[in-house]
């Protein structure tokens, strides 16, 4: 399966290179809309191409269909572009103007409405459309598909101003709980991290019920989290003894293909986890730089990442005390 994935990735790379050599003036608007969607699906965040594509479809916004506008906004959310960076000003302008156009459109497709709500939750954009669409969904919530209910529940959780009936909320929550309770299997990378934590004497739970890769509670016997504990500010529902860490391993599917930009669904997950957890992320491109046989180096890395103040003793002369992570120029930073 891994070999097939590599072949597919190589094919996708070749196709994108071919696209970038095209004269965009020779393409129809339909072609451009399809290209924008393909960049989202392919996790390709090429600013030069995407800015040009979004600028071209912006000129035709008045004639665009609901599907075309929503798919463009969905691509922006999936790639997490046009949010807080200056590279994607055309994307940001398109999303803002596209939402204004959509206010005068009649949504008749469940998938498009859900995708728009989900996208705006990721982009953290407030729009009256969200409330309108939620009211429409509430009227026929018994017919909504399971996956769509989960997406709606995520958005509902992140938007405290939204009000829905108890029946609709319960229906969404039941579907979300069912999803969280699905059987999960730890990947090899998760098991490597778990084994390293065992060597460090840190108690933890793998694949915790709240869809957490590695769950750590900052209470005895995990008494070595002096620095981390001070960083976590308890919420109204959390006292000092409830402080928890969600240690998340981010594999390649959490990032764009060429720039390691975190994808929208990753931001969404961690925004949801942050209600109950202090989230600490391990990017695959950092973890995989450490040789599989270098267990002491892995422990040093996690010691710095988790900010544990307990001295690691590997031998009489080889010990490791906590210090801040460096700039990442080498794997030893």
Automatic annotation (TrEMBL):
Q: Which SMART domains match?
A: RAP
Q: Where is the RAP domain?
A: 245-304
Which Pfam family name is an example for this entry?
RAP
Q: Which InterPro entries match?
A: RAP
**Protein name (record):** RAP domain-containing protein
Q: What is the lineage of its organism?
A: Eukaryota, Sar, Stramenopiles, Ochrophyta, Bolidophyceae
